[in-house]
Amino acid sequence: MAAYSPTRLQPGLPLIPVRARGVAFLGLAGLVLAGLALAGCHGTAVLTTQQAEGKDLYQVRCAHCHEDNDLGLKKVPPNLRGVFNQPVLPSGAPATDENVKRVVLSGKGMMPSFAGRFTEEQMAALLAYLHTGLR
Ligand code: HEC
């Protein structure tokens, strides 16, 4: 059958799906860009890479106590939102990186020590995120 000879199939048919894929990809890329633009309009905070790393650490290591008090501690862990916007920490100690680092490394009351749990880089990221006021 002449209609199925390779010489007739090759130039025309394979091109159609390739073009269709290209168009679909452009459409998808457009949607993603539009989505990003919309997210920007809603004022979603854009974190630096370091702050975003700190946010992950905070959410995994700190939020379950400081936001959910999932252990039902009698002394409710203080809200850390804007912790660096006040002159002092809830304990009354000056709100400095050094003091927060010390609390994290040594623990305090029912808060466990995180000594050896964070690298220097991770600690810096955690502090950078706390400085955003927890965006
Ligand atoms: C097991 C629950 C728990 C976890 C997990 C936890 N905390 Fe706490 N945190 C507490 C409690 C309870 C206090 C209050 C301690 C007190 O004053 O007796 C506290 C206090 C603090 C304070 C205030 C210290 C001061 O001097 O007032 C900071 C800052 C803090 N935590 C940061 C963190 C960070 C950062 C993490 C994550 C790395 C974290 N905490 C993880 C329970 C927790």
Summarize the entry for a quick read:
With 135 residues, the chain is mainly alpha-helical. Helix content is 54%, strand content 0%. It folds into 2 domains: 40 residues; 83 residues, Cytochrome c-like domain (Cytochrome Bc1 Complex, Chain D, domain 2, Orthogonal Bundle), CATH 1.10.760.10.
Describe the structure.
The chain has 135 residues and is an all-alpha fold. It folds into 2 domains: 2-41; 49-131, Cytochrome c-like domain (Cytochrome Bc1 Complex, Chain D, domain 2). The chain has helices spanning 6-12, 15-41, 49-61, 63-66, 97-106, 120-131. The longest helix is centred in the first third of the chain and has 27 residues, at 15-41. The mean pLDDT is 83. Bound molecules: heme C.
What's the SSE pattern? Answer: HHHHHH
> What is the helix tally?
6
What radius of gyration results from the CA coordinates?
26 Å
Largest sheet: none
Please name the CATH topology of the largest domain: Cytochrome Bc1 Complex, Chain D, domain 2
What is the strand content?
under 5%
Low-confidence stretches: none
